[in-house]
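Hey team,

Sharing the Aminotransferase-like plant mobile domain-containing protein run so nobody has to redo it. Sequence (136 residues) first:
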Amino acid sequence: MSITLEDIAMITGLPIEGRALTGKVRAAGWRQRVATLVGVEPEPWTDEIRKDPRPSGVLFSWIQRHFHRCPKDASPLVVQRFARAYLWNLLTQVVFPDGTGDTASWMFLDPLRDWDVKWSWGSAALAFLYRQMEHL
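Structure output:
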Protein backbone atom coordinates (compact mmCIF):
# COMPACT_ATOMS: atom_id res chain seq x y z
CA MET A 1 0.00 0.00 0.00
CA SER A 2 1.29 3.47 -0.76
CA ILE A 3 0.08 7.01 -0.43
CA THR A 4 -1.09 8.51 -3.72
CA LEU A 5 -1.44 12.07 -4.89
CA GLU A 6 -5.20 11.72 -4.63
CA ASP A 7 -4.79 10.64 -0.99
CA ILE A 8 -2.73 13.74 -0.26
CA ALA A 9 -5.36 15.96 -1.87
CA MET A 10 -8.20 14.34 0.04
CA ILE A 11 -6.47 14.17 3.42
CA THR A 12 -4.74 17.56 3.44
CA GLY A 13 -6.87 19.65 1.10
CA LEU A 14 -3.69 20.88 -0.58
CA PRO A 15 -4.03 21.70 -4.27
CA ILE A 16 -2.51 19.18 -6.66
CA GLU A 17 -2.97 21.25 -9.78
CA GLY A 18 -0.75 24.18 -10.59
CA ARG A 19 2.92 24.87 -11.04
CA ALA A 20 5.45 22.40 -9.68
CA LEU A 21 7.59 23.61 -6.80
CA THR A 22 10.92 23.23 -8.56
CA GLY A 23 13.86 25.42 -9.32
CA LYS A 24 17.13 26.55 -7.90
CA VAL A 25 17.37 27.64 -4.30
CA ARG A 26 19.68 30.61 -3.82
CA ALA A 27 21.13 30.76 -0.31
CA ALA A 28 22.89 34.09 -0.79
CA GLY A 29 20.86 36.98 0.53
CA TRP A 30 18.14 34.87 2.13
CA ARG A 31 17.81 37.20 5.13
CA GLN A 32 17.15 40.15 2.82
CA ARG A 33 14.54 38.12 0.88
CA VAL A 34 12.82 37.24 4.14
CA ALA A 35 12.79 40.94 5.04
CA THR A 36 11.27 41.81 1.66
CA LEU A 37 8.50 39.24 2.03
CA VAL A 38 7.58 39.59 5.72
CA GLY A 39 9.00 43.01 6.60
CA VAL A 40 11.47 41.89 9.29
CA GLU A 41 15.03 40.80 8.63
CA PRO A 42 16.34 37.92 10.76
CA GLU A 43 19.32 38.86 12.87
CA PRO A 44 22.65 37.86 11.33
CA TRP A 45 24.77 35.27 13.10
CA THR A 46 27.54 37.16 14.92
CA ASP A 47 29.43 34.46 16.82
CA GLU A 48 32.89 34.32 15.23
CA ILE A 49 33.83 31.03 16.88
CA ARG A 50 30.75 28.84 16.34
CA LYS A 51 29.16 28.13 12.96
CA ASP A 52 25.62 29.43 12.40
CA PRO A 53 23.32 26.59 13.56
CA ARG A 54 20.46 27.85 11.37
CA PRO A 55 21.90 28.80 7.97
CA SER A 56 18.74 27.71 6.21
CA GLY A 57 16.03 29.52 8.14
CA VAL A 58 14.70 31.05 11.31
CA LEU A 59 13.42 29.60 14.54
CA PHE A 60 9.66 29.15 14.80
CA SER A 61 9.89 31.27 17.94
CA TRP A 62 11.24 34.14 15.79
CA ILE A 63 8.13 33.97 13.58
CA GLN A 64 5.85 33.81 16.61
CA ARG A 65 7.65 36.72 18.29
CA HIS A 66 7.32 39.00 15.25
CA PHE A 67 3.98 37.82 13.88
CA HIS A 68 1.98 36.75 16.90
CA ARG A 69 -0.96 39.04 16.18
CA CYS A 70 -1.68 41.26 13.21
CA PRO A 71 -2.61 44.81 14.31
CA LYS A 72 -6.31 45.64 13.88
CA ASP A 73 -5.57 48.81 11.92
CA ALA A 74 -2.89 47.21 9.72
CA SER A 75 -2.45 48.34 6.13
CA PRO A 76 -3.04 45.82 3.33
CA LEU A 77 0.74 45.42 2.96
CA VAL A 78 1.15 44.54 6.65
CA VAL A 79 -1.78 42.09 6.46
CA GLN A 80 -0.10 40.39 3.49
CA ARG A 81 3.16 40.13 5.43
CA PHE A 82 1.41 38.56 8.41
CA ALA A 83 -0.48 36.17 6.12
CA ARG A 84 2.77 35.19 4.41
CA ALA A 85 4.48 34.60 7.78
CA TYR A 86 1.51 32.52 8.96
CA LEU A 87 1.55 30.34 5.83
CA TRP A 88 5.33 30.01 6.01
CA ASN A 89 5.05 28.84 9.61
CA LEU A 90 2.24 26.41 8.75
CA LEU A 91 4.03 24.96 5.72
CA THR A 92 7.30 24.40 7.55
CA GLN A 93 5.77 22.95 10.72
CA VAL A 94 3.03 20.78 9.23
CA VAL A 95 3.65 20.06 5.54
CA PHE A 96 7.45 20.26 5.21
CA PRO A 97 8.95 19.77 8.70
CA ASP A 98 12.72 19.43 8.85
CA GLY A 99 14.78 17.29 11.19
CA THR A 100 15.45 20.07 13.70
CA GLY A 101 11.83 20.55 14.68
CA ASP A 102 12.39 24.21 15.40
CA THR A 103 13.38 25.88 12.11
CA ALA A 104 11.30 27.44 9.34
CA SER A 105 13.30 27.03 6.15
CA TRP A 106 13.37 30.21 4.08
CA MET A 107 13.07 28.22 0.83
CA PHE A 108 9.35 27.67 1.49
CA LEU A 109 8.78 31.41 1.80
CA ASP A 110 9.82 32.25 -1.78
CA PRO A 111 6.76 30.59 -3.42
CA LEU A 112 4.55 32.81 -1.24
CA ARG A 113 5.93 35.90 -2.99
CA ASP A 114 3.16 36.11 -5.60
CA TRP A 115 -0.41 35.41 -4.43
CA ASP A 116 -1.60 34.86 -8.00
CA VAL A 117 0.66 31.89 -8.75
CA LYS A 118 -1.10 28.59 -8.19
CA TRP A 119 1.36 26.03 -6.83
CA SER A 120 0.85 22.27 -6.63
CA TRP A 121 1.51 22.09 -2.88
CA GLY A 122 0.06 18.56 -2.70
CA SER A 123 2.55 17.21 -5.23
CA ALA A 124 5.41 18.81 -3.32
CA ALA A 125 4.09 17.40 -0.03
CA LEU A 126 3.91 13.89 -1.47
CA ALA A 127 7.43 14.13 -2.89
CA PHE A 128 8.69 15.45 0.46
CA LEU A 129 6.94 12.62 2.31
CA TYR A 130 8.49 9.97 0.06
CA ARG A 131 11.91 11.55 0.44
CA GLN A 132 11.59 11.57 4.23
CA MET A 133 10.52 7.90 4.18
CA GLU A 134 13.78 7.00 2.43
CA HIS A 135 15.65 8.03 5.57
CA LEU A 136 13.71 5.73 7.91
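The chain is about 45% helix and 5% strand.

Ping me if you want the raw files.
A.
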